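Supplementary Note 3. Input sequence used for the single-chain structure prediction.
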Amino acid sequence: QVQLVESGGGLVQPGGSLRLSCAASGSISSINAMGWYRQAPGKERELVAAISSGGSTDYADSVKGRFTISRDNAKNTVYLQMNSLKPEDTAVYYCAANNGPVSSWPTLHEYDYWGQGTQVTVSS
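The predicted structure, written as discrete structure tokens, is reproduced below.
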């Protein structure tokens, strides 16, 4: 059983930066993939970024070049560095874990564990 806790959200001006953290109760080295999703009011939950056990990364086109996903296995923590933030980045951000194995990147419904979310608001 894996438990995930997100932190680092808050209010930031357009063009600013935030770093989100996702702390896992167990070793993330045994997890197939970790992902960040976000959901804005009235919209569907969408992929932001994902990282595999081997270090491969996947990003949504809307955040590519601005966001970076990384992990620290010693701390059982995954990070999402968000730069050049835009108002459309405003959403609740969720950390997710997939136990796998899967043949490719997990889909939304293939993630086994979810955090409770952290609010990110980008506004001037």
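The radius of gyration is 13 Å. The mean pLDDT is 94.
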